[in-house]
Amino acid sequence: MQDSKKNPFELENGCTLWEIANQEPVVNKMFNDAMVSSSCLFNDYIVRYGDNIFKGIESLVDVGGGKGVMAEVIAKKFPHVRCTVLDLPHVVCDNPNDGIVKFVSGDMFNYVPPANAVLLKWILHDWSNEDCIRILRRCKDAIPSREARGKVIVLEAVVGLTSAMISKEPQLLFDMLMLMVTEGEERDENDWKYLFTKAGFSSYKIICTFGFSSIIEVYP
What we know:
Blueprint: H1 8-13, H2 17-23, H3 25-53, E1 59-63, H4 69-77, E2 82-87, H5 89-92, E3 101-105, E4 117-121, H6 129-142, E5 151-156, E6 158-159, H7 165-181, E7 187-188, H8 189-198, E8 203-207, E9 214-219
Parallel strand pairs: 1-2, 1-4, 2-3, 4-5, 6-7
Antiparallel strand pairs: 5-9, 8-9
């Protein structure tokens, strides 16, 4: 490669996927629609495991939550949780503020609004270890202590957690996609533990679902 810090997508196009989405409305819509579809994959997990996950949680920020599909599901199923979506201005500019979900424009690398819990759904696998640590530190700054029920909820693959091919094949395919298009990768438990520790978190708990992604609760 001409520049080892750039992925193949960036080398071919001269800019990152995120920069193209910011500049091209058609690409932005296509990407956001894809994220809406991905959220639908997780809705059942959130409903199934949510009683324990959201117990005692009064507020939640869905970082990079796009159109707010998952946040709306959470707000309706667990009405005691006030849900906010944080995403870039070109993503949230047309989203309706209907009172169910609040939308805030901003950059997760700079600021995450305060809440009892922060949700990261398929966010960290897009980024390098260094960037993931930066994002996680911002999330940690936004939540209270564990005693006050502060936590970060990460929805991501945990490679090798199960040997079932129904999980393994999609994880490998997504790993190749991340390597081609982003600076990220799919990670195993040791990789996740390294990131959480470096970001200053004390412990974590993995909830293994029936799909190829897991729910990880990370505690300050």
